[in-house]
Write a structure and sequence with these properties.
The complex is a heterodimer. By secondary structure, chain A is mainly α. Chain A has one domain. The termini of chain A are far apart. Chain B has a domain of 53 residues. Chain B has a two-stranded antiparallel ribbon. In chain B, helix 1 runs antiparallel to helix 2. Classes of the chains: A mainly alpha, B alpha+beta.
């Protein structure tokens, strides 16, 4: 391999790690919304495919490491994936241990990465012969995933019954757009619907603010008083295996293995499911929370890496929620990448290994270090100078732009509609995982109803 | 993240005398929130619309618009958080 290409990969990985360390800390940054557009732009500028892969891997590892910081400190999810951790992180925060929470989560992330990189490569290799068959049944797999995750929720009948109506809403809008010519018939609006689901809870709350009765009934407060405990600085280079106890290392590792194996499922859904599974038997609240967040962070990382690498290597179609969401530009970015000509076709197995290892190692060494050592300073800065309103505004603006980009003015209304319904379902306990799976399998579900 | 429906009218509550409300786990002022959404939507969609007719440039301009909107809002809106430090006790 050419030395200049390796240097380019290292440079791109450093860029990805630094950029997404910053973005990860900003609360509420949705993975797809922040990763997909930037990756897309890089692909379209004609960067070498292998360099793009190194960038992407570095970016997801860094983003996953840092999005736990706002969760730990303020209970605000740094992204969709960290939303399930809020509840447990709040337990640690209540006991005045947000720093412990950050260390446990970041260490869980590192373990997830270390386990998932080799495991994903092996699993991908094993799946290559099955790639075509899997591609053929992807819709059924996604539908099965929606049913499975619905059964896992607390209000399982509500979740189960909402599958078909929600699929109808999604397909209904798509057919409307085709019918009136908002988009050509071979274009399926996806990204903006995805984002509509993501910010559903916010959209619902914004609508509620327009209702006088609800607005008046909301409790009024002056300020959000945050108490930070001064942390003792950690000397030397932090070691993730020492920051976790043995059981936590074990359960994050096992959870990560499951995370790789279920790469085609919604990572948020699996995170919730596995995190609860590994912590439900522990009674002591602090231990329970530590176990849950370290395992959950392991699963999210593993699920993300596996969800990117396995479909890329084995199938060549974006057949996992990660691939079809944040990683979509690696599969489809016309005219550079298409279904028949993307990283799957361009890169060899050794290319995949080299790019992944470079990206992951650089992100871990840069971001893990910064996260553990300076989380308090970073948080204090964000809390002091970044108003929550600006973050909500940015999020909203980004979604509106991507809605317009997908299908024009009409789609802004469409995304608000999806967000409103998704927000209500979310409040009723139909989690993101179920909703994303429905989004992926909606075309197939609707066809079965004829 | 579950959004619990807030209790209705807790009068005379010490916590209940400000003008701000909670949205997504943090405190915001309704007027500031509307202002911020307006600014960010205008800069983002504006950036997208004034860009030359080229898919990747439109996206770039839109992303620049996001950053500009974010910077404006961060300057003109004051965070509603207070931070106090306590020493770590074990």
């Amino acid at each position: 391999m050419d030395l200049t290409i390796i240097i380019e990969m290292i440079a791109a990985s450093v860029f990805g790690a630094v950029l997404y360390t910053i973005i990860g800390i900003a609360p509420g940054t949705d993975e797809t919304a922040v990763l997909a557009p930037v990756t897309l732009v890089l692909v379209l500028t004609g960067m070498e495919p292998i360099v793009i892969l190194a960038f992407f891997i570095s970016a997801i590892v860094a983003k996953k490491l840092t999005d736990s910081i706002p969760v730990a400190i303020a209970g605000i999810p740094g992204g969709v994936m960290s939303a399930p951790m809020v509840e447990h992180a709040m337990v640690l925060k209540k006991h005045g241990m947000p720093d412990v929470s950050i260390r446990k989560m970041a260490s869980g992330s590192v373990i997830g990465t270390i386990i998932s990189v080799p495991l994903s490569l092996i699993l991908a290799n094993m799946l290559i012969p099955l790639g075509d068959v899997i591609a053929e049944y992807s819709s059924q797999i996604f539908f099965g995933g929606a049913v499975f995750l619905a059964l896992m929720t607390k209000n399982r009948w509500l979740a189960l019954i909402s599958i078909v109506p929600f699929a109808l809403l999604i397909q209904g809008l798509r057919h409307l757009y085709w019918g009136i010519g908002a988009v050509p018939e071979d274009t399926t609006v996806f990204t903006s619907f995805f984002l509509g689901i993501t910010i559903g809870p916010i959209i619902l709350r914004l609508f509620e603010l327009l209702n006088k009765d609800i607005r008046n009934s909301l409790p009024r407060r002056k300020t959000n008083d945050i108490v930070l405990r001064k942390q003792k600085p950690i000397k030397g280079f932090p070691n993730p295996f020492k920051l976790l106890d043995k059981q936590e290392v074990g359960s994050s590792a096992i959870a990560s293995v499951f995370g790789v194996g279920t790469f085609f499922m919604s990572p948020v859904g699996m995170t919730i499911f596995l995190g609860e599974l590994f912590s439900s038997r522990i009674k002591e609240p602090i231990k329970k929370a530590s176990r849950a967040i370290s395992s959950m962070d392991g699963v999210t990382n593993a699920g993300y890496i596996a969800g990117t690498l396995i479909p890329l290597i084995a199938i060549g179609l974006p057949l996992s929620p990660t691939a079809i969401g944040p990683g979509i530009a690696l599969f489809e970015a016309p005219p550079v990448f298409t279904e028949d000509h993307n990283l799957h076709h361009i890169l060899s197995m050794s290319d995949f290994v080299i790019a992944t290892v470079i990206g992951a190692v650089i992100a871990i060494s840069l971001t893990f270090f910064v996260t553990i050592k300076y989380s308090q300073q970073i948080c204090a800065f964000v809390f002091k100078y970044i108003p929550h309103e600006a973050l909500l505004g940015v999020f909203f603006g980004l979604v509106i732009m991507l809605a317009y980009r997908d299908a024009g003015l009409i789609n802004i209304g469409g995304v608000l509609l999806i967000g409103l319904v998704a927000g209500i379902l979310h409040r009723w306990g139909v989690n993101y995982g179920v909703q994303f799976m429905i989004l992926y399998s909606a075309p197939w579900i609707v066809m079965q109803l004829l | 993240m579950t959004k619990k429906q807030p209790p209705v009218h807790q009068s005379n509550d010490k916590d209940n005398n400000g003008e701000n409300i909670e949205v997504w786990e943090d405190i915001v002022n309704i007027k500031d929130l509307i202002l911020s959404i307006a600014i960010c939507t205008i800069t983002t969609l504006g950036g997208y619309l004034i860009a030359p007719d080229d898919s990747s440039k439109q996206l770039m301009f839109g992303l620049i618009g996001v950053v500009v909107g974010f910077a404006i809002c961060s300057i003109i809106i004051k965070p509603k958080r207070t931070i106090t430090y306590v020493d770590e006790e074990n």
